[in-house]
Amino acid sequence: MRMPLFAEPGPDDEGAAEMLASAMSLDDLAERLGVSPRKARDLVDKGEIAAIDVGSGAARRHLRIIEADFQGFLVRRRIKAPKARPFDPPAPPRPKPLSARPKFSEIRAAEKARAALKPSRPSQSRS
After folding, report:
1. What is the pTM of this model?
2. Residue-wise over 40-53: b if at least 16 C-beta within 10 A, else e?
3. 14-77 maps to which CATH number?
């Protein structure tokens, strides 16, 4: 008994043929992902994106990617954006430089301003 080369088309084959007709090539995949065709082929070779080989033989593959597989890849690769941290408080204004012959009050004000700019150290108690 001889086996037929092609099976008779069934009711489910219409959906499969429609999916395959709307499948994208590796070049289309690369364009949609914004990568090189080589990178798209690597993603398929690594198994990150499922593909259908419609070519003849292993030496010359003609790969097609179904839209559902492409969307699944995008969902799996989606990352959550880190939450933005608030801005640091603004630095206090720098003191004005002293004149050539400063008064005592100007010197004292400049010392206080410099002290305010320095980071405070925790007090160390001596026992």
Report:
1. 0.50
2. bbebbeeeebebee
3. 1.10.10
Distances (CA, A) of 47 to 30, 32, 77: 15, 18, 13
Q: What number of helices (H) and strands (E) belong to the chain?
A: 5, 2
| DSSP state, residue 88 | P
Nearest-angstrom CA–CA distance, 66 and 72:
10
Residue 28's Cβ-count burial label (10 Å; 0-12, 13-18, 19+) is: middle
What residue segments make up the domains of the chain, in order of their start?
14-77
Task: Check residues 9 and 96 and name the one with the higher pLDDT.
Answer: 96
Which tokens is 24 given?
């994208």
**How many CB atoms are located within 10 Å of the residue 106 CB?**
14
